[in-house]
Predict the structure.
Amino acid sequence: MQNKLIPVAQPALKGNEKKYVLDCIDTSWISSNGKYIDLFEKAFAKFVNRKYAISCCNGTVAIHLALLAKNIKKGDEIIVPTLTYIATANAVSYCGAKPVLVDCDETWNIDPKKIEANITKKTKGIIVVPLYGYPCDMDPILKLAKKFNLFVIEDAAQAHGAYYKNKIVGSMGDIATFSFFGNKIITTGEGGMVVTNNKKLANTIRLLKGQGMNPKKRFWFNIIGYNYRMTNIEAAIGLAQLENINTFLNQRRNLSKWYEEYLSPLSKYVTFIKPKPWVQHSYWMFSLSLQPKYANKRDSLATYLAKNDIETRPVFYPLHLMPPYKKSKRFFPVSTNIALRSLNLPTYNELSKHDIKYITKTIHAFFSTSLI
Ligand SMILES: *Cc1c(COP(=O)(O)O)cnc(C)c1O
């Protein structure tokens, strides 16, 4: 036992966050106008190597805006991985369209080989989700999209700063979306961003997020839009976070190395993903899987860790197991198997080597005491 709780995630707010937020208050620019919105959008566009970045109030509506800009509506089908956070599919449902679920492969991401069989006349696009920061295998996916004239949205809510080959995640699809929720790689509290290189899409997204107000005629509305705006205070925090993102990413990559080092001797009990040479993982969450033999011990391991002041989370329950998306009766063996025997371990910038030693020692203790 140690006395401090090790949370699963925790934001690091030690840069210019306070200074920029105080500036918003001192100047009274606290709502959805102000210089930080523009500064954050421009800096983020540069970071992901896109021409346009449009801020919004969270990562879920970022996906909704991307789909609306692509005119997705009832009768359309969008391919999404079954192993993802529920927001990916919910955004499709908000448009009245149908998310068509696809199983993942050993990288925990959508299996490119299983996409084609799910394409119908109604399919309009594919949403890929680089899960926990591990980039998707984009080459075959982009090739398929081209062949069937589908758009690709990268739901990169978990993968700021990850790279596929030499391309940053968020720069490969027609549109990419990001979340800045409190536990993400960088945060604004709540917040999101949509990025694209397409000017027309960017203008549509901007129009939709601001109630549809005509940019040339104030208080004139040609369409039904949404209030999906980010505040200047959120953008101020986001700008300060983005200034430090490379440090954050280095810290995450270092702590993952420590996890790998200390977990390797426990390979009889647990495994973890070993990234392919052409990907640069951003490690939103370091995750482990119990070996199949111990799969049914996942929840008792989590309980044991919690008793020892270590918070964990179960890997996402695949969407096909949850009531709103259960209709299809299809079985997705790879996702189901991974989800039920895997856990996310504490992953945040300020986690020390000492903490990781303690966490992995506790995992070892669980297996040595509970299995004999
Ligand atoms: C966090 C997350 C979202 C939603 O972001 P919010 O900002 O919480 O609305 C969407 N998709 C994925 C994959 C996420 O992890």
